[in-house]
Design goal:
The structure holds two protein chains of two kinds. Chain A is α+β, with helices and mostly antiparallel strands. Helices cover 33% and strands 20% of the residues of chain A. In chain A, the strands form four sheets. In chain A, strands 1, 8, 9, 10, 11, 12, 13, 14, 15, 16, 17 and 18 form a twelve-stranded mixed β-sheet that branches. In chain A, strands 4-5-7-6 form a four-stranded antiparallel β-sheet, covered by helices on one side. The longest helix of chain B is centred in the middle third of the chain and has 39 residues. Classes of the chains: A alpha+beta, B mainly alpha.
């Protein structure tokens, strides 16, 4: 019995000692303590190797670790210089020359040179590393004229060398000598050698990853010393963590959460203008296996569908007002590239007009059942509408759209299913209408490419094909003059609006929230109401005076564990006593 | 002699099941609609060109026909190679598995031990004094919690004890801070375990309670207990030495089986408390359709259940000779 008492006492003392630092964390850290900013995320970091980056969070980490030649400016996404002092393009548009800044260093102290850039480019081209090779298309050669000058020659005029995020600079002295497989297997952790302001220093899969500021960063030491990303695996938990103060910032998953958070003291939750859009796509595949109803191939039917949809009501009822009506895939958050249809081309909500458009195109309800028939075949105008089961907004919208189409004599069979199943139907061309969404990049090239003929089966939602559009796509890519390119990009959007391979429904807001009682300095990217959490903010966020770090998220004070041990000991003792007594009577 | 035959039969049954599962696992995940690359192509922030998709498919062997992939899979299996994970690029499936194994064993293992000890104790006490205040209270409470969805219970505990009262961390296996070492780290890990362990224990204690209680009730009318009592033995000893011991048999197989399910993790509780265990890993692997990780996970889950089943059978045969003879 004494053994139990002694064991319990020892365990209790050890546990109490262990919990002292965790439980007794000081609320106001001294000035020399690190400034830590904690981000709550609902996804994990799967790879720290930049040539293997596949999804958004990996791009975030390597964006902080590796600087580019250029970057998108904060005001309107215009190109800005990052690692270069200056750059110029030749009059024929075939040569880009970049001049690196003086004093660039890798985190191990070695200088960043033109040779590093050239080595990386050639490594990607020679090994055909498909994730990156897109950024080097039409490249003739890339050479280092001297330590700080990169000369990039292309076989035809190309914007690609100027695109941030499409090319990479790795430290040659670390990567040189690797085979393609070596490079793909390379963990790049621990101790990554980086050129950017932060380095990945801790990484526990499924739990968190931590980036540490470089005090020798050429752009100045960041204000936040440690940037921690904590993984939460569901939306409610990450919001609770923000309310508790265990994290300082998180993306807010839905407008309902935003409504809950926006009046909480000490928290600021904002609806930022989104770069993406929601769409109703039409199956235009010419593939023989396509089961599309011939009606969706008729542009007049597609325009009539557009006229039958009330986008304002969708935004009010489905999004709770958090969104803006859309008429182009390039959102209004990109004012330079965004095109609005002029009033004479604008299709507005007008069921009567939709009906007369369908009448004129020969889709008449000849049997009086309220559903039109296809001219010729006499088949009823019935379309299959699909959505992904986890897309709440898309599902809500589908129900409205179904009833509006019914109003103009189009019957829809609406089904929602798991995303993976939907993808199968999608790529097998076994559908008529489909609701989904896309996000976008600051340069319109990528999104515009998804409407080109060659993207059928890959990024194209509709398998839309228009040779004029394809030519314009190639032309804008080779137009280095920004305003000349703008004119082409506008024309492409106009074609898309006329042909209407898909109806853009709305630009949704995106929600972000942070502890405004602790932090200040979030900058919209772009102005005036773009995203709030990105490199510019990270370099500008600072503690509100007197509070300098993420709040404690530790456990109970040591006395809790002492009590647990004492209680367990007591229970064991009591049972023993009882048993002994029983034994004693038996004897 | 009989014992050996019994054991051999059980082992060969287990091996047959295992062989079936090995084949079944391969097709099970591949008949899921879509494939990992399609899912990745449409993921937010992903920028997979058609060439990159083709290259990935080639590397993963997905460009081959299904029978071709199956042959590769069997060949790798024979060599003991479970392949690389798709989500955790370039990492062996085995090492991913091992990394997520420990938190699950710690969490679900602790909870399982607690629910067994508490459940059996309450079941014995409740059965012995059927209808007493304690019996009714344990029955009411354990059945209420047993029928409560565990994600809801977990969320309530999280909101009350983490957000509002601030007593426990908001989730995870440990604090995102490698400065905590030694005892401080141990206590930190314990702190993170409290709420998930309570959720699991409280939620499942009813299972053991019910089984134990009813089997105790079964033996209570037996003649040998009357005989023991007639010898003048104290009630407390009658209960623990004679009644409870014989009534434990059904619980033993339940317990052995429970430990087989430990490594399957606790998906919902791991999700709510963001606990990096095998349950969570399974969810991630399913989301991304990581065939290789899924095959391995289900193989290990099957193995654990088979082994614990085998142990239950053997133990049962050992404890109860009637089973062996049958």
């Amino acid at each position: 019995m004494r053994r139990i008492v002694v064991t319990c006492a020892v365990v209790a003392v050890i546990l109490a000692a262990g919990s002292a630092p965790a439980g007794g964390q000081s609320a106001t850290p001294s000035p020399e303590e690190k400034v830590t900013f904690t981000v709550g995320v609902t996804y994990d970091l799967n790879s720290a190797n930049p040539i293997w980056s596949l999804d958004g969070n990996e791009w975030m980490v390597h964006g902080l670790e590796y600087d580019g030649l250029l970057r998108y400016g904060r005001e309107d996404y215009a190109l800005e210089r990052e690692m270069v002092d200056s750059y110029e393009t030749s009059a024929d548009g075939l040569t880009w020359t970049f001049h690196l800044k003086d004093g660039l260093t890798w985190s191990d102290g070695q200088p960043v040179t033109a040779d590093d850039f050239v080595w990386t480019a050639n490594f990607i081209i020679d090994n055909d590393i498909a994730l990156w090779s897109d950024g080097y298309r039409y490249t003739k050669d890339i050479v280092a004229r001297d330590d700080r000058t990169i000369v990039w020659t292309t076989t035809r005029p190309s914007l690609a060398p100027g695109w941030p995020g499409y090319n990479l600079t790795l430290p040659k002295h670390v990567w040189d000598g690797m085979s393609k497989q070596d490079a793909k297997d390379f963990k790049n952790f621990p101790d990554p050698v980086v050129s950017g302001p932060y380095r990945l220093v801790e990484w526990e899969t499924g739990e968190y990853w931590k980036l540490e500021a470089r005090d020798d960063y050429y752009g100045g030491e960041p204000l936040i010393d440690e940037l921690v990303f904590r993984v939460y695996n569901n939306d409610e938990a990450v919001i609770q963590a923000l309310l508790k103060g265990a994290i300082d910032y998180t993306e807010v998953p839905t407008s309902e959460f935003h409504e809950r958070l926006k009046d909480e003291p000490g928290i600021e939750s904002v609806a930022t203008a989104a770069e993406g859009f929601y769409q109703l796509s039409f199956n235009l595949a010419s593939d023989p296996s396509s089961t599309a109803n011939p009606a969706v191939l008729d542009p007049e039917v597609r325009r009539a569908v557009d006229a039958a949809i009330d986008k304002e009501t969708l935004i009010d009822r489905v999004l709770g007002g958090y969104g803006a009506p859309a008429n182009s895939p390039i959102a209004a958050v990109y004012p330079f590239w965004h095109w609005d249809p002029p009033p004479d081309q604008l299709v507005t909500f007008d069921p009567a007009r939709a009906r007369s458009m369908l009448d004129d195109a020969g889709y008449l309800d000849s049997d009086g059942d309220g559903i039109r028939e296809l001219p010729g075949s006499g088949e009823p105008l019935q379309l299959r509408l699909f959505t992904s089961a986890d897309d709440k907004d898309g599902n809500d919208a589908a129900e409205y759209i179904q009833s509006w189409l019914r109003d103009v004599g189009i019957d829809t069979a609406y089904r929602t299913m798991a995303w993976s199943k939907l993808l199968n139907i999608w790529y097998d061309f076994d559908w008529d209408l489909l609701i989904s969404s896309w996000s976008n990049l600051p340069d319109p090239d990528w999104l515009l490419s998804s409407f080109t003929t060659g993207q059928c089966g890959s990024w194209s939602d509709t398998c839309y094909s228009n040779p004029t559009y394809d030519d314009l796509y190639a032309e804008q890519q080779a137009t280095l003059d920004r305003s000349a390119r703008q004119a082409i990009v506008f024309e492409m959007q106009e074609i898309l609006y006329r042909d209407m391979p898909e109806i853009q429904l709305w630009y949704p807001n995106f929600f972000e929230a942070w502890r405004s009682d602790r932090w200040t300095g979030f900058l919209p990217w772009p102005e005036p109401d773009g995203l709030r959490f990105h490199l510019y903010s990270i370099m500008n966020i600072r503690p509100v005076t007197g509070v300098a770090t993420t709040g404690p998220d530790a456990g109970p004070p040591g006395v809790f564990w002492i009590a647990v041990v004492a209680l367990t000991g007591l229970l064991v003792l009591l049972t023993r006593v009882r048993h002994r007594r029983a034994d004693a009577y038996y004897a | 002699m009989n014992g050996t035959r019994y054991l051999l039969r059980k082992v060969s049954e287990a091996l047959l099941t295992l062989a079936f599962v090995l084949v079944f696992n391969f097709f099970l995940f591949r008949i899921m609609p879509s494939d990992p690359i399609r899912i990745l192509t449409r993921q937010r922030g992903a920028r997979l060109t058609a060439e990159a998709q083709a290259e990935l498919a080639r590397e993963l062997g997905l460009d081959k026909s299904l029978p071709g992939q199956f042959v590769d899979y069997l060949g790798d299996l024979v060599r003991g190679n479970l392949g690389n994970s798709f989500i955790y690029r370039g990492e062996r499936v085995m090492s991913v598995f091992l990394r997520f194994l420990w938190p699950t064993v710690l969490l679900v293992g602790t909870a399982t031990v607690l629910m067994i000890v508490i459940g059996l104790y309450l079941g014995i006490r409740g059965g012995w004094r059927r209808g007493s205040g304690m019996d009714r209270a344990s029955m009411g409470l354990s059945m209420t919690f047993y029928s409560t969805p565990d994600f809801w219970l977990a969320m309530m505990l999280l909101i009350v004890f983490s957000t509002l009262l601030g007593w426990f961390p908001s989730g995870g296996y440990a604090s995102p801070n490698s400065d905590l070492t030694g005892m401080a780290h141990v206590v930190d890990v314990l702190n993170h375990m409290v709420l998930p362990v309570i959720t699991l224990t409280v939620g499942y204690v009813g299972e053991y309670y019910l089984v134990m209680r009813s089997s105790l009730l079964d033996v209570m009318g037996e003649d040998y207990l009357t005989a023991v009592r007639a010898k003048g033995i104290r009630e407390e000893r009658v209960l623990w030495r004679h009644a409870a011991r014989n009534a434990l048999l059904p619980s033993i197989s339940l317990i052995a089986l429970s430990f087989g399910f430990v490594i399957g993790g606790a998906i919902t509780v791991e999700l709510v408390f963001s606990y990096p265990g095998l349950g969570l890993l399974t969810v991630h692997a399913l989301d991304a359709q990581d065939y290789w990780l899924l095959q391995a996970l289900f193989l290990f889950f099957t193995l654990a259940v088979l082994i614990s089943n085998l142990i239950a059978d053997v133990l049962y045969g050992y404890l109860d000779p009637r089973v062996r003879e049958a």
